[in-house]
Write a structure and sequence with these properties.
The chain is built from four helices and seven strands. By secondary structure, it is α/β, with parallel strands linked by helices. It has one domain: STAS domain (Transcription Regulator spoIIAA).
Length: 131
Protein backbone atom coordinates (compact mmCIF):
# COMPACT_ATOMS: atom_id res chain seq x y z
CA UNK A 1 0.00 0.00 0.00
CA UNK A 2 1.33 3.42 -0.94
CA UNK A 3 -0.68 6.47 0.05
CA UNK A 4 0.53 10.04 0.15
CA UNK A 5 -0.93 12.97 2.04
CA UNK A 6 0.13 16.50 1.12
CA UNK A 7 -0.59 19.54 3.24
CA UNK A 8 0.04 23.07 2.10
CA UNK A 9 -1.09 25.76 4.55
CA UNK A 10 0.61 29.03 5.35
CA UNK A 11 4.26 28.13 6.02
CA UNK A 12 3.75 24.39 6.18
CA UNK A 13 4.43 21.98 3.41
CA UNK A 14 4.58 18.38 4.60
CA UNK A 15 4.04 15.20 2.71
CA UNK A 16 3.39 11.84 4.37
CA UNK A 17 4.21 8.58 2.64
CA UNK A 18 2.38 5.53 4.00
CA UNK A 19 3.30 1.85 3.84
CA UNK A 20 2.87 -1.37 5.80
CA UNK A 21 5.58 -3.78 6.83
CA UNK A 22 5.16 -6.91 8.99
CA UNK A 23 1.68 -5.76 10.03
CA UNK A 24 2.97 -2.35 11.11
CA UNK A 25 1.69 0.92 9.64
CA UNK A 26 4.65 3.13 8.70
CA UNK A 27 4.20 6.88 8.23
CA UNK A 28 7.07 8.81 6.69
CA UNK A 29 6.48 12.56 6.84
CA UNK A 30 8.77 14.93 4.98
CA UNK A 31 8.90 18.65 5.77
CA UNK A 32 8.51 21.08 8.64
CA UNK A 33 5.72 21.05 11.24
CA UNK A 34 4.87 24.51 12.58
CA UNK A 35 2.57 25.30 15.54
CA UNK A 36 0.12 27.26 13.40
CA UNK A 37 -0.65 24.17 11.32
CA UNK A 38 -0.95 21.50 13.99
CA UNK A 39 -4.57 20.80 13.01
CA UNK A 40 -3.51 19.98 9.44
CA UNK A 41 -0.62 17.87 10.79
CA UNK A 42 -3.04 15.95 13.01
CA UNK A 43 -5.52 15.45 10.15
CA UNK A 44 -2.73 14.19 7.90
CA UNK A 45 -1.57 11.63 10.48
CA UNK A 46 -5.09 10.49 11.32
CA UNK A 47 -5.98 10.11 7.62
CA UNK A 48 -3.67 7.12 7.23
CA UNK A 49 -4.68 5.26 10.40
CA UNK A 50 -7.44 2.66 10.18
CA UNK A 51 -9.45 1.57 13.23
CA UNK A 52 -7.94 -1.93 13.13
CA UNK A 53 -4.31 -0.72 12.97
CA UNK A 54 -2.55 -2.01 16.04
CA UNK A 55 1.02 -0.88 15.45
CA UNK A 56 2.61 2.21 13.96
CA UNK A 57 6.08 3.57 13.32
CA UNK A 58 6.55 7.26 12.61
CA UNK A 59 9.73 7.54 10.53
CA UNK A 60 10.94 11.10 11.20
CA UNK A 61 14.03 11.13 9.00
CA UNK A 62 12.47 13.73 6.70
CA UNK A 63 11.07 16.00 9.43
CA UNK A 64 13.41 18.99 9.67
CA UNK A 65 11.40 20.92 12.27
CA UNK A 66 8.79 19.86 14.82
CA UNK A 67 7.05 22.50 16.95
CA UNK A 68 5.72 21.83 20.43
CA UNK A 69 2.17 21.71 19.01
CA UNK A 70 3.39 19.21 16.41
CA UNK A 71 4.93 17.16 19.19
CA UNK A 72 1.60 17.16 21.01
CA UNK A 73 0.00 15.66 17.89
CA UNK A 74 2.65 12.92 17.88
CA UNK A 75 1.81 12.19 21.52
CA UNK A 76 -1.92 12.03 20.74
CA UNK A 77 -1.16 9.67 17.86
CA UNK A 78 0.97 7.48 20.11
CA UNK A 79 -1.88 7.29 22.62
CA UNK A 80 -4.08 5.73 19.93
CA UNK A 81 -1.69 2.80 20.03
CA UNK A 82 -1.67 2.17 23.79
CA UNK A 83 -2.95 -1.02 25.34
CA UNK A 84 -2.72 -4.76 24.77
CA UNK A 85 -1.88 -5.75 21.20
CA UNK A 86 -0.93 -2.19 20.28
CA UNK A 87 2.42 -0.40 19.89
CA UNK A 88 3.91 2.86 18.62
CA UNK A 89 7.47 4.00 17.96
CA UNK A 90 9.43 6.79 16.32
CA UNK A 91 12.41 6.14 14.11
CA UNK A 92 15.28 8.13 12.66
CA UNK A 93 14.57 11.56 14.16
CA UNK A 94 16.79 14.31 12.79
CA UNK A 95 19.17 16.06 15.16
CA UNK A 96 16.77 18.98 15.63
CA UNK A 97 13.76 16.76 16.24
CA UNK A 98 15.76 14.59 18.64
CA UNK A 99 16.59 17.73 20.67
CA UNK A 100 12.88 18.62 20.89
CA UNK A 101 12.06 15.06 21.96
CA UNK A 102 14.73 15.12 24.67
CA UNK A 103 13.90 18.62 25.93
CA UNK A 104 10.23 17.67 26.30
CA UNK A 105 10.98 14.35 28.00
CA UNK A 106 9.15 12.59 25.18
CA UNK A 107 12.14 10.30 24.68
CA UNK A 108 11.35 8.82 28.12
CA UNK A 109 7.77 7.84 27.28
CA UNK A 110 8.03 6.51 23.75
CA UNK A 111 10.34 4.10 21.99
CA UNK A 112 12.74 5.86 19.62
CA UNK A 113 14.94 3.92 17.23
CA UNK A 114 17.83 4.91 14.97
CA UNK A 115 16.65 2.37 12.38
CA UNK A 116 13.16 2.09 10.90
CA UNK A 117 13.67 -1.64 10.33
CA UNK A 118 14.50 -2.10 14.03
CA UNK A 119 11.46 -0.01 15.00
CA UNK A 120 9.20 -2.13 12.80
CA UNK A 121 10.54 -5.40 14.20
CA UNK A 122 10.20 -4.29 17.82
CA UNK A 123 6.80 -2.67 17.32
CA UNK A 124 5.44 -5.74 15.51
CA UNK A 125 6.72 -7.92 18.34
CA UNK A 126 5.15 -5.72 21.04
CA UNK A 127 1.81 -5.58 19.22
CA UNK A 128 1.83 -9.21 18.17
CA UNK A 129 1.37 -8.00 14.58
CA UNK A 130 1.70 -10.41 11.72
CA UNK A 131 2.47 -9.35 8.21
Amino acid sequence: MRLRTLIEANCMDIEIGWSRDSGVLVAKPVGRVYSAQYIEWQAALMSGIKPDDGAMVLDCEGVTYLSSAGLRVVLETARRFEGPGRAFALSRPTKGVRKVLAASGFDKIISIFDSTDEAILQTAKEAGADG
